[in-house]
Amino acid sequence: TGSLTVNSAVGASKGGAGGAAGNGGNGAASMTGGAAGTGGAGGAGQIAYAGGLASATFTDVFISFSYHTTGAINATGGAGGAGVNGGIGGTGGSSATGGAAGVAGTGAVGAASYAGGLVGLVTTGMSTDSYSTGNINATGGAGGAAGAGGAGGAGGSGTLGIIGGAGIAGVAGGASYAGGLVAYNSATINNSYSSSGTITAN
Predict the structure, then answer these.
(1) Is the CA virtual torsion 48, 136, 120, 63 positive or negative?
(2) How far from chain centre, in Å, is Cα 49?
(3) Which of 63, 89, 165, 198 is least surrounded by CB atoms within 10 angstroms?
């Protein structure tokens, strides 16, 4: 009995931000400015598993005459790391064009979450004569924000600057799985039930 919360959306469970992009070097006299680097991609968030008996099982498991009551089961997937802005193109030398702008770094997809009254994820085995009551909630991790395209390098005297780098589309949030007994199941369930609670996958 009792509540269980697995929150991978905070702290070290979040995906890390991408590495910084380098700026292009300035061109010497009559030389084109250096091209900027691409922004780093964000890191993946951590998957969250939560269950009244076990968070997840990845080997053959047999659950019998077991139950979870009077507490909520909550799982929140880790947020994807943010992408980083593209670098700034180098300034062109006298009468030379500026360097190409860096492309934005992409954010990482949010991590999935699995919340089940008994087990979050079951890959193989059997559950029999078991039950769960209480609220179940699974929330997928937020997708990481994409970086912005870098600024194009300024042109030298009498020369046009370079166009800025392209932005990147946002990414999807993580999938969420919620079930009264098992959120994601590849095993056999017999003579078992869930009652008296709400089941929500966000």
Answers:
(1) positive
(2) 15
(3) 198
Cβ atoms of residues 142 and 40 within 8 Å = no
CA distance linking residue 111 with residue 124, whole number of Å: 23
Give 59-114 pLDDT, tens digit per residue: 888 999 988 887 889 999 988 999 899 999 889 888 888 888 898 899 999 999 99
Tokens found for residue 128 = 């029999």
Instruction: Describe the strand order of the beta sheet including 199-201 as a list of residue ranges.
Output: 4-7, 73-76, 136-139, 199-201
Q: Which residues contact 11 (CB under 8 A, 6 or more apart)?
A: none
Q: What is the DSSP string of 114-125?
A: EEESSEEEE-SE
Q: Please tell me the distance from the alpha carbon of residue 24 to that of residue 27, in angstroms, as a whole number.
A: 9
